[in-house]
Structures are given as C-alpha cells and as structure tokens.
Amino acid sequence: MFSSLDYVIVDTFHAAALVIGANDNGKPGIRKQYHANYYAAFVFDPLGHNIEIVYHSPF
C-alpha cells in the first residue's frame, strides 16, 4: 500500500497504471468499509500483485 498526500494523486496513479498495462482492481473512490475518509484505488501489476494507493484525510 502507498499513502498519498492528495486524492488527485490517487486518481492520477490509477489512470497512469492502467495506461502502462496494469489491470483495474478498484476504481478511485471512498471505501467506507474502512473509514469515512479512506479514498483509494487498486490495480494489479503485470505480475498479478495487488497495488493500493490511499488518501486518508477529509476532503
């Protein structure tokens, strides 16, 4: 898991990862099951590893 300083970085990371061949495993968005301010995105890298990037602060 990677921590982000801003939700825009989460969005940008997800889009860039898809461009270079990662597979979507969860579009950027709030994950209320973790907590109210958990904004994350998930991708599978070409080797199948799940990579998460998350922003924890309120909007």
Biggest sheet architecture: 4 strands, mixed
Considering DSSP H and I runs of 4 or more, what fraction of the residues is helical? 10-25%
Q: Average pLDDT, to the nearest integer?
A: 96
Radius of gyration computed on alpha carbons: 11 Å
Domain tally:
1
CATH superfamily: 2,3-Dihydroxybiphenyl 1,2-Dioxygenase, domain 1
Percentage beta strand: 35-45%
Number of strands: 4
InterPro entries: Glyas_Bleomycin-R_OHBP_Dase
Protein name: Glyoxalase/bleomycin resistance protein/dioxygenase
Secondary structure layout:
Blueprint: E1 2-3, H1 7-19, E2 23-30, E3 39-44, E4 50-55
Parallel strand pairs: 1-4
Antiparallel strand pairs: 2-3, 3-4
Which tags fit this structure?
37% strand, alpha+beta, Glyoxalase/bleomycin resistance protein/dioxygenase, globular, 4-stranded mixed β-sheet, Glyas_Bleomycin-R_OHBP_Dase, 2,3-Dihydroxybiphenyl 1,2-Dioxygenase, domain 1, 59 residues
Structure in a nutshell:
With 59 residues, this protein is of the alpha+beta class. The protein has one helix and four strands.
Describe, in plain words, how this protein is organized in 3D.
It contains one helix and four strands; from the N terminus they run E-H-E-E-E. It has 59 residues and is α+β, with helices and mostly antiparallel strands. The chain has one domain: 2,3-Dihydroxybiphenyl 1,2-Dioxygenase, domain 1 (Roll), CATH 3.10.180. It has a four-stranded mixed sheet, covered by helices on one side.
